[in-house]
């Protein structure tokens, strides 16, 4: 079994999910952490129970021969520079969502990885949740007939303190956006994965429940997909106490509604024997908030599954489920939504 060495760049909250996921993979080990503040790296080590070398010099870390994969966990608008540096050092690259906050910066990461023949993965762990996997299978099998409507909601709550801490949340320069770019980007990706690419969007955004932020805490968007179906996205960090996220896929032959990992509705015009098993398996399965009111209240299990998929891709020379181009799509959709809201018109993708 090949053992892969991981390094993490940026040691904030999300890095702990990556470190815990790496710790639980049998063919992976964490060999290095990079942080401008070594105390943050030490806190991460203590929280996860791992020991590895700590760097404040990124080029020095990237020179390690036992480092094969670099996970970028810096603020969203600071993903590009370390990702490109890792690719130039011939390391495979994992980037926490969003891939970056502009399409140009996304493209520069993608190009660097292609130029250096290393693989790139964008973290979208919701694709690895069991309920979403069976929903995707139903879409691929054509069970919905003609897709007609896709809906997703991320009605979450974030306190003012959340935005006041850290110095980058809620800023255009480093967060790149608000409830859509930071929280609901998972929903946007899921909707695209199920329904295909949208061809036009229209949206309204607002900042209603927070001060001292440059971005939206409430957004509603409508979409038209390439297959003719319509879509709705609701995204917020302004809704107390925070509700579970949902995705609903509808067609002229079926409807499925998923709330977190609970399947609330699974109905098709042509029933199959496995339908009752699916309904039973996912009936009130998860009671956790899934991050609805606190960003740390999220499991690292789906990060683990996604990193396992990335290692599989490296070993087999195939694409990971969520590569750089896939990660770019969600950013493109969100930027089109922001443009629509700013210009008060439909925007084509």
Structure notes:
The protein is α/β, with parallel strands linked by helices. The chain has 12 helices and 14 strands. Strands 13-12-11-7-10-9-8-14 form an 8-stranded mixed β-sheet. Strand 2 (28-34), helix 2 and strand 3 form a beta-alpha-beta unit. Helix 1 crosses helix 11, helix 5 runs antiparallel to helix 12 and helix 9 packs across helix 12. The termini are far apart.
Strand and helix layout:
Layout: E1 4-9, H1 13-23, E2 28-34, H2 38-48, E3 53-55, H3 58-62, E4 69-72, H4 80-88, E5 92-95, H5 103-115, E6 120-122, H6 130-140, E7 147-155, H7 160-164, H8 179-183, H9 185-195, E8 198-206, E9 218-225, E10 230-236, E11 246-251, E12 254-259, E13 262-268, H10 274-281, H11 301-316, H12 324-343, E14 347-348
Parallel strand pairs: 1-2, 1-4, 2-3, 4-5, 5-6, 7-10
Antiparallel strand pairs: 7-11, 8-9, 8-14, 9-10, 11-12, 12-13
Identify the notable features of this structure and list them briefly.
349 residues; alpha/beta; six-stranded parallel beta sheet
What's the short version?
By secondary structure, the protein is α/β, with parallel strands linked by helices. Helices cover 36% and strands 23% of the residues. The N and C termini lie far apart (44 Å).
Secondary structure class reads alpha/beta
Q: Report the end-to-end length measured between terminal Cα atoms.
A: 44 Å
Low-confidence stretches: none
Helix content: 25-40%
Global morphology: globular
Q: Order the strands across the largest sheet as they lie in space.
A: 13-12-11-7-10-9-8-14
Q: How would you sum up the major sheet?
A: 8 strands, mixed
| Number of strand elements | 14
Strand % is 15-25%
> What would the average pLDDT be, to the nearest integer?
96
Encode the helix/strand succession as letters.
Answer: EHEHEHEHEHEHEHHHEEEEEEHHHE
Number of DSSP helices? 12
- Using only C-alpha atoms, the radius of gyration works out to 20 Å
């Amino acid at each position: 079994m090949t053992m892969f060495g991981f390094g993490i760049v940026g040691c904030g909250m999300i890095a702990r999910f990556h470190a815990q996921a790496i710790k639980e993979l049998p063919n992976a080990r964490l060999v290095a952490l990079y942080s401008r503040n070594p105390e943050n790296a030490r806190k991460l080590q203590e929280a996860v129970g791992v020991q590895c070398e700590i760097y404040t010099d990124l080029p020095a870390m990237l020179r390690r021969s036992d480092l094969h994969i670099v996970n970028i966990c810096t603020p969203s608008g600071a993903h590009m520079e370390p990702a490109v540096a890792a690719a130039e050092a011939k390391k495979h690259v994992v980037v926490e969502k969003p891939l970056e906050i502009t399409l140009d910066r996304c493209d520069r990461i993608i190009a660097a990885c292609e130029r250096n023949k290393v693989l790139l993965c964008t973290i979208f762990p919701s694709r690895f949740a069991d309920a979403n996997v069976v929903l995707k299978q139903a879409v691929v099998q054509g069970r919905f007939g003609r897709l007609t409507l896709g809906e997703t909601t991320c009605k979450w709550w974030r306190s003012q303190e959340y935005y006041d801490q850290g110095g980058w949340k809620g800023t255009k320069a480093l967060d790149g956006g608000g409830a859509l770019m930071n929280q609901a980007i998972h929903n946007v990706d899921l909707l695209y994965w199920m329904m295909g690419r949208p061809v036009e969007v229209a949206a309204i955004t607002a900042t209603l429940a927070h001060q001292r932020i440059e971005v939206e805490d409430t957004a509603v968007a409508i979409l038209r997909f390439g297959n003719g179906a319509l879509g709705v996205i609701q995204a917020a960090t302004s809704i107390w106490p925070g509700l579970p996220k949902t995705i609903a896929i509808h067609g002229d032959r079926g409807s499925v509604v998923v709330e977190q990992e609970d399947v609330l509705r699974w109905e098709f015009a042509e029933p199959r024997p496995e339908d009752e098993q699916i309904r039973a398996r996912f009936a009130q399965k998860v009671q956790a908030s899934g991050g609805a009111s606190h960003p740390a209240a999220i499991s690292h299990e789906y990060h683990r599954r996604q990193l396992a998929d990335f290692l599989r891709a490296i070993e087999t020379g195939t694409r990971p489920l969520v590569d750089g181009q896939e990660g770019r799509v969600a950013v493109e959709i969100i930027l089109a939504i922001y443009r629509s809201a700013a210009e008060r018109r439909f925007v084509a993708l």
